[in-house]
Predict the structure.
Amino acid sequence: MPDSFLQYCRATLSGDEAEEVVKVIESGWLTTGPNVAGFEKEFKEYIGCEHTLALNSCTGGLHCALSALGVGAGDEVITSPFTFVASGHVIVWTGAKPVLVDVDPNTFNIDPEKVEKAITPKTKAILPIHFAGLSCDMDALLDIGKRHNIPVIEDAAHAAGSEYKGKKVGSFGDVAVFSFYPTKNMTTGEGGMVTTNDPELADRIRKFAFFGIDKEVWERYGKKQGWQYDIILPGFKYNMSDVLATIGRVQLKQLDRFNLKRSEIADFYKKSLSGLEDCISLPPETADTVHNWHLFPIRLDKTEKTREGLIEYLTEKQIGSSVHFIPLHLFSYYQKAWGYKPGDFPVVEKIFKNIVSIPLYPGLTDGDQERIVSAIYGFFDRKPPL
Ligand SMILES: Cc1ncc(COP(=O)(O)O)c(C=O)c1O
């Protein structure tokens, strides 16, 4: 019986990050500079989009994108309740109302039909989330956006390397924002990246990300030495440092390898857990997408046994697990400030009631994966097929 605790999540490092970070520190240029520019260029090439902007978080990128699109007080932004609070809070920060609409039970992503029904003259943006790394139905969402002249801001926090109809998420919509938090498929410790094909929007987001200054920080302190600048809008401070960008450059080179490993682990789980089909459901997949397997959420939707029971059992077996996500409308803030209440979004509530994410990251050994599967079988008093 193994006694070491198997973490739910662990950042995957290639081994070259530390050496590169030391080089940056020794260069004497720690904040936004040549490494950020290099990381933006390389991410742009990887995604296949026209413009990128590296920031210190995905949250900051979403906030800047909404602000750059002119979203403000009195406006409405449509989003999914099935997300991390960042996606809702950024809307609130602009002064707009987060208009939540329910998800599609087959994907757990925002339901385009319900999005269309929620549009009002006040709607200024649609903010879908590619839950767990499975792309939303982007044709439907972009079509709605086009017909109503409303931009679609993709929360691609989970979706580095995910594809939709043969194209990388972030390469073809209005604007998308990725996260490089340590739990994500690639990391910079903390960080995010905006992608867009719209040069004016890219420029405006860049201004919002750094105080509204009309010049880049390294244009001011670098070789050009120009001390003068103008402030053209009341921007925020979300710039990425060169120290973090250099980690991102190393990680990006490994992203496809990391994602391949994730998909191998997902295949193992799908195969080995299929013997529990009468108790659990496996994560949704769709035919026209490449899933990056950021998360592996299973549902205990065909059994009397509870998600809480499984989490407790796994903890006893020294295995971490997590729940993604507590729907936004079940938080007291969203209820008090925006009038949401339990029962408002029955599809997401049904999914949430019995969902559990099991560990999935490239660092899991074959033994770790077998241990996880055996424990889940054990919870159901069954013998694992291993
Ligand atoms: C769906 C979603 N959106 C946004 C974020 C925020 O990302 P960051 O921590 O990079 O700001 C997260 C983080 O976990 C997330 O899961």
Residues 256-379 form a domain with the Aspartate Aminotransferase, domain 1 fold (CATH 3.90.1150.10). The first helix runs from residue 17 to 27.
